[in-house]
Amino acid sequence: MDLSPWQQHMLAISMNAALTVVNVIASFISEKLGRRVTVITSIYMCMIFTLFCAVVPNYTSLLLSRILTDVGVGLNDSILWVYMSEISSTRQFRVTSITTIAMAHSLGGGWAGVLGYLLLDKMSWRYFLLLISLPILVLPLFSF
């Protein structure tokens, strides 16, 4: 699927729009569903819709799955910090767990950029999306 520059920009705009809206309403959602359920749901949303992004047949499906992926990302980014603070037993463990999350976000984002620079000219963006999505496939193993 070849995307025009306009379609590429719409994908980027939809990501930012979804993250903005979800960040505003994430606390209300987590209060209704519970933080644990919200975090686990967001992990599954990221996993499922990222895989959909790699295999969808047309632009409309890609845009929708990208928006739903970003809803999961927004929920996770907004609630995970609070949830980890609540379940941490001691101050030291809380500091360690939140620092680990922050480092993982930074390292993962940086690593995706490096991989993009090295591999996007050599492989399809669909395969690349699957490759950088592999870590999210492991997360559900630790959600229960």
How would a textbook summarize the main sheet?
Answer: none
Tell me how many strands there are.
0
Helices and strands: which structural class?
mainly alpha
The overall average pLDDT, rounded, is 88
- Terminal residue distance: 37 Å
What is the approximate shape? Answer: globular
Strand content: under 5%
Helix content: over 70%
Number of helices: 5
Gyration radius, to the nearest Å?
16 Å
Give the H and E element order.
Answer: HHHHH
Low-confidence stretches: none
How does this model look, in words?
The protein has helices spanning 5-33, 35-55, 59-87, 91-119, 125-138. With 144 residues, it is mostly helical. The chain is globular, with a radius of gyration of 16 Å. The chain starts with a helix and ends in a 6-residue tail after the last helix. The mean pLDDT is 88.
How would you briefly describe this protein structure?
By secondary structure, this protein is mainly alpha-helical.
Give a topology summary:
Elements lengths: L4 H29 L1 H21 L3 H29 L3 H29 L5 H14 L6
Please tag this protein with its features.
144 residues; mainly alpha
